[in-house]
Amino acid sequence: MTPMRTEPYKANRKAVQQRLYTEGPVLPPRLVQRGHLPWLSTYTTQLKTEGKSVNTQKSYMIGLRHLIETPLPGEDIISEFERDSMNIEQLLERVEPFNGRLDLWVQSMVDRSPSTVKARLAAANHLMNWLGQKWPEHLIRPKSGKKLPRTLTSRELSLVKEAAACSEDPVANLIVTMILDTGLRVSELCELNISDIDLEDNSAMVIDGKGGKDRLVLFTQSTVESILAWLPLRESRNPSGDNLLVTKTGNVFQSRTVQRLMDKLADLAGIPRGRLTPHVLRHNFATGLLERGADLVSIQRLLGHASIATTRVYLEISDQTLREIYKRAQTVQIEECDS
Length: 339
Known about the structure:
The protein has about 350 residues and is an all-alpha fold. About 60% of the residues lie in helices and about 5% in strands. It has helices at about 5-25, 30, 40-50, 55-70, 80-85, 90-95, 100-105, 115-130, 155-165, 170-180, 185-190, 220-235, 255-270, 280-290, 295-305, 310-339; strands at about 195-200, 205, 215-220. A three-stranded antiparallel beta sheet has the order 1-2-3. It is globular and about 65 Å long. Residues about 1-5 and about 10-20 have low confidence and may be disordered.
Protein backbone atom coordinates (compact mmCIF):
# COMPACT_ATOMS: atom_id res chain seq x y z
CA MET A 1 0.00 0.00 0.00
CA THR A 2 1.39 3.37 -1.04
CA PRO A 3 1.89 5.64 1.99
CA MET A 4 -0.21 8.81 2.03
CA ARG A 5 1.76 11.90 1.03
CA THR A 6 1.18 14.69 3.54
CA GLU A 7 3.66 17.25 2.15
CA PRO A 8 1.24 18.88 -0.37
CA TYR A 9 -1.47 19.09 2.30
CA LYS A 10 0.88 20.69 4.82
CA ALA A 11 2.19 23.12 2.24
CA ASN A 12 -1.34 24.09 1.20
CA ARG A 13 -2.46 24.55 4.81
CA LYS A 14 0.56 26.71 5.54
CA ALA A 15 -0.16 28.85 2.47
CA VAL A 16 -3.78 29.35 3.53
CA GLN A 17 -2.75 30.29 7.07
CA GLN A 18 -0.14 32.70 5.76
CA ARG A 19 -2.66 34.33 3.44
CA LEU A 20 -5.21 34.74 6.24
CA TYR A 21 -2.55 36.17 8.52
CA THR A 22 -1.22 38.68 6.00
CA GLU A 23 -4.57 39.73 4.56
CA GLY A 24 -6.36 40.05 7.87
CA PRO A 25 -10.08 40.66 8.32
CA VAL A 26 -11.94 42.63 5.64
CA LEU A 27 -14.69 45.20 6.09
CA PRO A 28 -18.01 44.57 4.32
CA PRO A 29 -18.67 46.63 1.15
CA ARG A 30 -20.99 49.03 2.99
CA LEU A 31 -18.14 50.06 5.32
CA VAL A 32 -15.16 49.97 2.95
CA GLN A 33 -15.48 53.64 2.01
CA ARG A 34 -16.01 54.61 5.64
CA GLY A 35 -13.14 52.69 7.21
CA HIS A 36 -11.30 55.92 8.06
CA LEU A 37 -14.23 57.30 10.11
CA PRO A 38 -14.24 57.15 13.93
CA TRP A 39 -15.89 53.93 15.01
CA LEU A 40 -17.63 55.29 18.11
CA SER A 41 -19.77 57.97 16.48
CA THR A 42 -20.43 55.83 13.39
CA TYR A 43 -21.52 52.81 15.42
CA THR A 44 -23.65 54.94 17.76
CA THR A 45 -25.43 56.35 14.72
CA GLN A 46 -26.05 52.79 13.53
CA LEU A 47 -27.64 51.85 16.88
CA LYS A 48 -29.90 54.91 16.73
CA THR A 49 -30.86 54.10 13.14
CA GLU A 50 -31.93 50.62 14.27
CA GLY A 51 -34.13 52.17 16.93
CA LYS A 52 -32.10 50.94 19.90
CA SER A 53 -33.15 52.71 23.10
CA VAL A 54 -30.76 54.95 25.02
CA ASN A 55 -30.48 52.31 27.75
CA THR A 56 -29.67 49.60 25.18
CA GLN A 57 -27.02 51.84 23.63
CA LYS A 58 -25.44 52.40 27.06
CA SER A 59 -25.54 48.67 27.82
CA TYR A 60 -23.88 47.84 24.50
CA MET A 61 -21.12 50.38 25.01
CA ILE A 62 -20.24 49.15 28.51
CA GLY A 63 -19.56 45.64 27.24
CA LEU A 64 -17.87 46.70 23.99
CA ARG A 65 -15.45 49.06 25.70
CA HIS A 66 -14.34 46.24 27.98
CA LEU A 67 -13.86 44.02 24.93
CA ILE A 68 -11.78 46.61 23.08
CA GLU A 69 -9.64 47.28 26.17
CA THR A 70 -8.88 43.58 26.77
CA PRO A 71 -5.16 43.10 26.02
CA LEU A 72 -3.67 40.10 24.26
CA PRO A 73 -0.55 38.54 25.83
CA GLY A 74 2.34 40.96 25.38
CA GLU A 75 0.13 43.94 24.49
CA ASP A 76 0.13 47.21 26.40
CA ILE A 77 -3.12 48.40 27.95
CA ILE A 78 -4.70 51.08 25.77
CA SER A 79 -6.03 54.35 27.16
CA GLU A 80 -9.64 55.49 27.06
CA PHE A 81 -8.69 58.06 24.42
CA GLU A 82 -6.99 55.44 22.24
CA ARG A 83 -9.99 53.16 22.55
CA ASP A 84 -12.58 55.76 21.58
CA SER A 85 -10.53 57.49 18.87
CA MET A 86 -9.91 54.38 16.73
CA ASN A 87 -11.31 54.43 13.22
CA ILE A 88 -13.41 51.56 11.91
CA GLU A 89 -10.48 49.77 10.24
CA GLN A 90 -8.40 49.95 13.43
CA LEU A 91 -11.35 48.66 15.45
CA LEU A 92 -11.78 45.68 13.12
CA GLU A 93 -8.11 44.83 13.39
CA ARG A 94 -8.38 45.10 17.17
CA VAL A 95 -11.49 42.96 17.74
CA GLU A 96 -11.47 40.55 14.78
CA PRO A 97 -13.07 37.40 16.17
CA PHE A 98 -10.24 34.89 15.76
CA ASN A 99 -7.23 36.68 17.25
CA GLY A 100 -8.07 35.49 20.79
CA ARG A 101 -9.30 38.79 22.23
CA LEU A 102 -12.93 37.69 22.27
CA ASP A 103 -11.99 34.52 24.14
CA LEU A 104 -10.01 36.41 26.79
CA TRP A 105 -12.84 38.90 27.20
CA VAL A 106 -15.41 36.14 27.67
CA GLN A 107 -13.13 34.38 30.17
CA SER A 108 -12.86 37.63 32.16
CA MET A 109 -16.63 37.50 32.77
CA VAL A 110 -16.54 34.14 34.53
CA ASP A 111 -17.89 35.64 37.78
CA ARG A 112 -20.63 37.66 36.09
CA SER A 113 -24.26 36.55 36.17
CA PRO A 114 -25.53 34.60 33.14
CA SER A 115 -27.87 37.46 32.21
CA THR A 116 -24.99 39.98 32.22
CA VAL A 117 -22.79 37.69 30.11
CA LYS A 118 -25.67 37.08 27.71
CA ALA A 119 -26.30 40.83 27.31
CA ARG A 120 -22.62 41.60 26.70
CA LEU A 121 -22.24 38.77 24.20
CA ALA A 122 -25.29 40.11 22.38
CA ALA A 123 -23.58 43.51 22.15
CA ALA A 124 -20.36 41.95 20.83
CA ASN A 125 -22.31 39.82 18.36
CA HIS A 126 -24.06 42.93 17.06
CA LEU A 127 -20.71 44.69 16.62
CA MET A 128 -19.28 41.72 14.74
CA ASN A 129 -22.26 41.66 12.40
CA TRP A 130 -21.84 45.38 11.78
CA LEU A 131 -18.16 44.82 10.96
CA GLY A 132 -19.09 41.96 8.62
CA GLN A 133 -17.48 39.25 10.75
CA LYS A 134 -18.77 35.81 11.74
CA TRP A 135 -19.30 34.98 15.38
CA PRO A 136 -17.04 32.10 16.55
CA GLU A 137 -19.09 28.94 16.94
CA HIS A 138 -17.28 27.89 20.11
CA LEU A 139 -18.46 30.99 21.97
CA ILE A 140 -21.99 30.06 23.01
CA ARG A 141 -24.27 32.28 25.05
CA PRO A 142 -24.99 30.93 28.54
CA LYS A 143 -28.51 30.03 29.56
CA SER A 144 -30.03 32.71 31.73
CA GLY A 145 -31.78 30.27 34.02
CA LYS A 146 -35.19 30.86 35.52
CA LYS A 147 -35.19 33.60 38.13
CA LEU A 148 -38.43 34.73 39.71
CA PRO A 149 -38.84 38.51 40.10
CA ARG A 150 -38.36 39.70 43.66
CA THR A 151 -41.30 41.31 45.44
CA LEU A 152 -41.88 42.85 48.85
CA THR A 153 -44.08 41.14 51.42
CA SER A 154 -47.28 42.90 52.52
CA ARG A 155 -45.62 44.02 55.73
CA GLU A 156 -42.51 45.31 53.93
CA LEU A 157 -44.72 47.18 51.48
CA SER A 158 -46.62 48.85 54.33
CA LEU A 159 -43.34 49.88 55.97
CA VAL A 160 -42.04 51.35 52.70
CA LYS A 161 -45.25 53.33 52.12
CA GLU A 162 -45.08 54.67 55.67
CA ALA A 163 -41.41 55.61 55.25
CA ALA A 164 -42.18 57.39 51.96
CA ALA A 165 -45.03 59.36 53.54
CA CYS A 166 -42.71 60.49 56.36
CA SER A 167 -39.65 61.17 54.17
CA GLU A 168 -37.96 64.56 54.37
CA ASP A 169 -38.16 64.74 50.57
CA PRO A 170 -41.83 64.91 49.46
CA VAL A 171 -40.97 63.45 46.06
CA ALA A 172 -40.36 60.08 47.75
CA ASN A 173 -44.06 59.56 48.38
CA LEU A 174 -44.89 60.45 44.77
CA ILE A 175 -42.31 58.02 43.35
CA VAL A 176 -43.41 55.07 45.49
CA THR A 177 -47.11 55.76 44.90
CA MET A 178 -46.72 56.14 41.13
CA ILE A 179 -44.65 53.01 40.56
CA LEU A 180 -47.01 50.90 42.68
CA ASP A 181 -49.99 52.45 40.89
CA THR A 182 -48.73 52.42 37.29
CA GLY A 183 -45.92 49.87 37.03
CA LEU A 184 -43.70 52.43 35.29
CA ARG A 185 -40.05 51.59 34.73
CA VAL A 186 -37.74 53.93 36.63
CA SER A 187 -36.36 55.36 33.37
CA GLU A 188 -39.91 56.04 32.16
CA LEU A 189 -40.83 57.76 35.41
CA CYS A 190 -37.73 59.96 35.28
CA GLU A 191 -38.58 61.01 31.71
CA LEU A 192 -42.30 61.58 32.35
CA ASN A 193 -43.42 65.15 31.64
CA ILE A 194 -46.29 67.03 33.26
CA SER A 195 -47.76 67.50 29.79
CA ASP A 196 -47.92 63.69 29.41
CA ILE A 197 -50.29 63.40 32.39
CA ASP A 198 -54.09 63.68 32.27
CA LEU A 199 -55.36 64.04 35.83
CA GLU A 200 -59.00 64.12 34.71
CA ASP A 201 -58.62 60.81 32.87
CA ASN A 202 -56.34 59.27 35.55
CA SER A 203 -53.82 58.33 32.88
CA ALA A 204 -50.42 59.20 31.46
CA MET A 205 -48.75 58.62 28.12
CA VAL A 206 -45.30 57.04 28.16
CA ILE A 207 -43.44 58.49 25.19
CA ASP A 208 -40.61 56.47 23.62
CA GLY A 209 -40.53 53.83 26.35
CA LYS A 210 -38.47 50.63 26.22
CA GLY A 211 -38.12 49.49 22.63
CA GLY A 212 -39.05 52.99 21.45
CA LYS A 213 -42.76 52.32 22.03
CA ASP A 214 -45.46 54.65 23.38
CA ARG A 215 -48.10 53.32 25.75
CA LEU A 216 -50.89 54.45 28.04
CA VAL A 217 -50.63 53.84 31.79
CA LEU A 218 -53.47 54.23 34.26
CA PHE A 219 -53.52 55.30 37.90
CA THR A 220 -55.90 55.74 40.82
CA GLN A 221 -56.95 58.72 42.90
CA SER A 222 -53.96 58.08 45.19
CA THR A 223 -51.58 59.09 42.40
CA VAL A 224 -53.75 62.10 41.50
CA GLU A 225 -53.56 63.34 45.09
CA SER A 226 -49.80 62.70 45.26
CA ILE A 227 -49.19 64.64 42.03
CA LEU A 228 -51.37 67.57 43.13
CA ALA A 229 -49.55 67.71 46.48
CA TRP A 230 -46.17 67.63 44.69
CA LEU A 231 -46.75 70.17 41.91
CA PRO A 232 -46.43 73.40 43.99
CA LEU A 233 -43.05 72.29 45.40
CA ARG A 234 -41.95 71.05 42.00
CA GLU A 235 -42.83 74.48 40.54
CA SER A 236 -40.62 76.20 43.11
CA ARG A 237 -37.70 73.92 42.24
CA ASN A 238 -37.91 74.35 38.47
CA PRO A 239 -40.54 76.83 37.19
CA SER A 240 -39.65 76.51 33.50
CA GLY A 241 -39.19 72.76 32.99
CA ASP A 242 -41.79 70.13 32.08
CA ASN A 243 -40.34 67.06 33.83
CA LEU A 244 -42.55 65.80 36.64
CA LEU A 245 -39.63 64.75 38.84
CA VAL A 246 -36.95 67.29 39.74
CA THR A 247 -34.35 67.29 42.49
CA LYS A 248 -33.97 69.91 45.22
CA THR A 249 -31.56 71.75 42.93
CA GLY A 250 -34.05 71.73 40.05
CA ASN A 251 -32.31 69.06 37.98
CA VAL A 252 -34.07 66.21 36.21
CA PHE A 253 -34.12 62.95 38.18
CA GLN A 254 -31.83 60.14 37.02
CA SER A 255 -32.35 56.42 37.70
CA ARG A 256 -29.45 56.34 40.15
CA THR A 257 -30.98 59.31 42.03
CA VAL A 258 -34.17 57.30 42.50
CA GLN A 259 -32.19 54.29 43.77
CA ARG A 260 -30.37 56.47 46.32
CA LEU A 261 -33.77 57.61 47.52
CA MET A 262 -34.89 53.97 47.73
CA ASP A 263 -31.85 53.17 49.88
CA LYS A 264 -32.86 55.91 52.33
CA LEU A 265 -36.43 54.62 52.43
CA ALA A 266 -35.19 51.08 53.06
CA ASP A 267 -33.18 52.36 56.02
CA LEU A 268 -36.25 54.19 57.38
CA ALA A 269 -38.41 51.10 56.86
CA GLY A 270 -35.87 48.83 58.53
CA ILE A 271 -35.48 46.47 55.57
CA PRO A 272 -32.27 45.55 53.69
CA ARG A 273 -31.38 48.02 50.96
CA GLY A 274 -31.13 45.26 48.38
CA ARG A 275 -34.78 44.40 48.96
CA LEU A 276 -36.05 47.79 47.76
CA THR A 277 -35.53 48.96 44.19
CA PRO A 278 -37.85 50.68 41.69
CA HIS A 279 -38.03 47.41 39.75
CA VAL A 280 -39.12 45.48 42.84
CA LEU A 281 -42.01 47.94 43.23
CA ARG A 282 -42.87 47.37 39.56
CA HIS A 283 -42.96 43.62 40.26
CA ASN A 284 -45.31 44.27 43.19
CA PHE A 285 -47.59 46.23 40.85
CA ALA A 286 -47.74 43.31 38.40
CA THR A 287 -48.28 40.55 40.97
CA GLY A 288 -50.93 42.67 42.69
CA LEU A 289 -52.89 42.96 39.45
CA LEU A 290 -52.62 39.23 38.82
CA GLU A 291 -53.78 38.32 42.32
CA ARG A 292 -56.78 40.64 41.90
CA GLY A 293 -57.85 38.81 38.74
CA ALA A 294 -56.30 40.81 35.88
CA ASP A 295 -55.50 38.81 32.75
CA LEU A 296 -51.98 38.44 31.37
CA VAL A 297 -52.62 40.38 28.15
CA SER A 298 -53.83 43.44 30.08
CA ILE A 299 -50.84 43.25 32.44
CA GLN A 300 -48.52 42.90 29.46
CA ARG A 301 -49.91 46.10 27.92
CA LEU A 302 -49.72 48.04 31.18
CA LEU A 303 -46.12 46.95 31.79
CA GLY A 304 -45.07 47.56 28.19
CA HIS A 305 -43.68 44.06 27.65
CA ALA A 306 -42.91 43.25 24.03
CA SER A 307 -43.60 39.55 24.62
CA ILE A 308 -46.23 37.95 26.83
CA ALA A 309 -43.60 35.35 27.76
CA THR A 310 -41.94 38.06 29.87
CA THR A 311 -45.23 38.69 31.67
CA ARG A 312 -45.94 34.99 32.19
CA VAL A 313 -43.21 34.75 34.84
CA TYR A 314 -45.59 36.49 37.26
CA LEU A 315 -47.84 33.43 37.09
CA GLU A 316 -45.07 31.50 38.80
CA ILE A 317 -44.93 34.06 41.60
CA SER A 318 -48.69 33.72 41.99
CA ASP A 319 -48.39 29.93 42.10
CA GLN A 320 -45.67 30.27 44.71
CA THR A 321 -47.90 32.57 46.79
CA LEU A 322 -50.78 30.10 46.42
CA ARG A 323 -48.59 27.28 47.73
CA GLU A 324 -47.55 29.38 50.73
CA ILE A 325 -51.18 30.25 51.52
CA TYR A 326 -52.20 26.60 51.17
CA LYS A 327 -49.35 25.48 53.40
CA ARG A 328 -50.26 28.01 56.09
CA ALA A 329 -53.94 27.02 55.89
CA GLN A 330 -53.11 23.33 56.20
CA THR A 331 -50.84 24.01 59.17
CA VAL A 332 -53.61 25.91 60.95
CA GLN A 333 -56.08 23.07 60.20
CA ILE A 334 -53.70 20.45 61.63
CA GLU A 335 -53.10 22.55 64.75
CA GLU A 336 -56.88 22.94 65.27
CA CYS A 337 -57.37 19.18 64.93
CA ASP A 338 -54.59 18.48 67.42
CA SER A 339 -56.14 20.83 69.96
